[in-house]
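name: query_chain
kind: protein
chains: 1
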Amino acid sequence: MNHLPISSALLLKKKKSKLSKKKSKKKKNNYNNNNNSNHKDNNNKKFSRYDKICFFIALIMFVSTCFYVEIMNTHNDDKTASSISESSRYKSKQLKKIDGKANNLKRKIVALRKQLKKGLQEENGRKTIQTNHQHGANHIEEEDQEEDLSPKVERRQKEDQDNDGDNNNDNDNDDGDYTLKAIRIMKHLDLKDNSQRGKFVFIAYGNNGFLPFFQNWICNTAKMEGVHERTILITTGESSYKVLKKNRFNVQVSLHKLNDKKYNRDLEYDTYGYWKLVQIRVKALGDILTNGVSMLLFEPDAIWAQNPLRDPELLDPKYDIIGFSDSSGGVGFGWLLLKSNSKTIALWKEILRLTTVEIDKHKNMNLNSPLHLAGEQGHFNKLIKNKDKYPKFNDLKIKILSQYKYCSGRWYDGGRGGDGMQFRRQCKEKGIPFVVNNNWIVGNRGKIKRAKRWGHWFLNRHNNCNNDDKLIRKLNYAKKTFTSLRPKRKPTRDECPKCR
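structure:
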């Protein structure tokens, strides 16, 4: 082997190391270049996907905005169409109102013509009524003169004169409307049946405070055959008259105008105002009775569970007076049938005299001042118990109906009768009653609350019963309470604070 010098060998090693370093550098550069190119390609790929996503999002937003604009356009079109239809509806309503007013005017003209024709007949009727009334009064005065003029009789004559003066000044200006209506009903009943069985007119009397009871009674008896056509509701308040005369069941309503309007409010029992209204009522009912009209006086706050015209006990023509028991051996005024004849007229005249004398002793009292009197019912019961002392009506035939068929307010709970369950059970044994009076409680508000608790209130919140289906359901529920004997809920303390 040829051996090189040491210097040349070192040089060769250095050159080899430099070459190896250059090769390694080239490899590294090539690797880095390859990595950079791959990274760039990947970045290019990523940017292309992002662009696609952005494009699709933009496309979706564009489509949605177009769809929204289309919806808004259609909504605006609907609005314009609805506004046009509303304006056309408004115009049609206005035209209908105008047509309705024109038709109402035509009807009023026709009604006025009919009233003008009837006016002459009614005027003649009033004249005959006045003459008959005068003849009847003269006849009674002649009979009084024929009797022995004892000191008591002289005193009574003086009291009658004083009372007549007081009545003319204090009571009422009455147009006689309810009397004429009662006469027409009696004539209609005569045409239906020649017998005297069941020939009477239902009469209820009250002021503005009785309005909800009048309305409730109309709904209560709406499905009872023959009741409404022979009923007259007499009110002393003009506001209640305007409401009642619009009733959809065509129940006849009359206005009894009073000079003093303070008696048209809600008057509490056993106050001077209450008894003063009682006096006015007795006089008005006497006018009906003296004109040949038999009447059944009832309270509109009562519930009628059955049609009383189907009760043979009530329709018996043999009796002059038929009434319900007042639970103390007497006859109650809440349900009183009076046949018009000389005996009942004489009795009623004496009741009016005694009632007027009793009330006029307290003329200076305030309207709401407490006042406990015997009243017309007390005088009535006293007179019929001592009827033998009065020749004009000593042979009156009187019948008291079963207290279990024509019940007082003892039937209810929450009043002065306590729980009432025992009495309700006694009534149930006799079957469903015909009438239950809502008395034995103080105040109209308490009466309404109690009636609602028992399901005996038939008015809705608008104070009518225009929905027949709902009314029938309420009537059926009310009838079930006379077998279940339980209310919807117990009475509250504020129902009748004075009952405790």
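note: The chain has two domains: 106-140, 174-499.
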